[in-house]
Amino acid sequence: MRRAVREWLGRYAPDGVVAVALSGGADSVALTAAACAEADVVDALTVDHGLQAGSAEVAAAAAALASQLGCRSARVLTVTVERAGTGPDIADRDPDIGRPAGLGDRAGKARYPGGPEAAARRARYAALDQARQGLPVLLGHTLDDQAETVLLGLGRGSGARSIRGMPEFDAPWGRPLLGVRRSVARELCADLGITPWQDPHNSAPEFTRVRLRHEVLPLLEDVLGGGVAAALARTAAHLREDGEVLDALAGELLAAARDGDGLRIEMLATAAPAVRRRVIREWLLERGAKSLTDSNLRAVEALVTRWRGQGGVAVGGSASGTRLVAAREHGRLILGSE
Description:
Blueprint: H1 2-12, E1 17-21, H2 26-38, E2 41-48, H3 55-69, E3 73-82, E4 105-111, H4 115-131, E5 137-138, H5 143-156, H6 160-163, E6 169-170, E7 173-174, H7 182-191, H8 208-224, H9 228-257, E8 258-259, E9 262-264, H10 265-269, H11 273-286, H12 294-305, E10 313-317, E11 323-329, E12 332-337
Parallel strand pairs: 1-2, 1-5, 2-3, 3-4, 5-7
Antiparallel strand pairs: 6-7, 8-9, 9-12, 10-11, 11-12
Helix pairs in contact: 1-2, 2-3, 2-7, 5-8, 5-9, 9-11, 11-12
């Protein structure tokens, strides 16, 4: 654990000053202990979502533990999560959900679609971002979390971007433990004589990620003779390395293909499909498109590669609530609103 944190600090935070999201669970407790041993300064941030009975006590206990472990400061940030809307289970997309992640200031209310889990996640990350005071924030995601993320991505069929998992650093979020098994975190807590908090959400079978953790991965380990979690994490690492190269090539093509607010069709038409779709995706996102799907991207790509006079392609709504439509016009790919 200490070596993993030390190596992460050397790569991304050589000044040795970080914040850590401390929920009180085993992974975040072990991470905080290792960070206090290896970093020069650690500030602990604990979010109280108020979604479970006794959450304030859990958050207060986590903050007290942070001080005992050697953190410079330990803050509890209370957020109000309004249960608005329904949608996919955010726990299927993010391993951090359900863990009271952070911080005595009132961070305010959050109203988001996607159900309470999605609202809690967004409120949590917003609170952490607001409280971090410019520091990178370490998160306790482990190799096991990465393996679960890859499996979820495979099940969704949403491409390499999904199954390359979580990055080691996506500013300001750092994940030093992606190469460390969850069991090691629990061993460290035991060595320190700490009994971590057990989140009841982590054993609730209504969450797909929980069933993956307790049913699917153990079965795969049994059938394939072990090593599955590590293999999935390696797969994510390989895909991330490949993806970074493709993203760089796409960045160069995007710069070359720009024509005002649009893109020159001739520049896109001869590009490799994997690079071209990345260019289209980045262009749509920077123009305000939301929640892009693979079918969205391929339909827009068809305006470039399979032009038959078809009309525009709706690519979702913008932040202002208008509908965005991609179309082909005078040799350019353009994006308008309705």
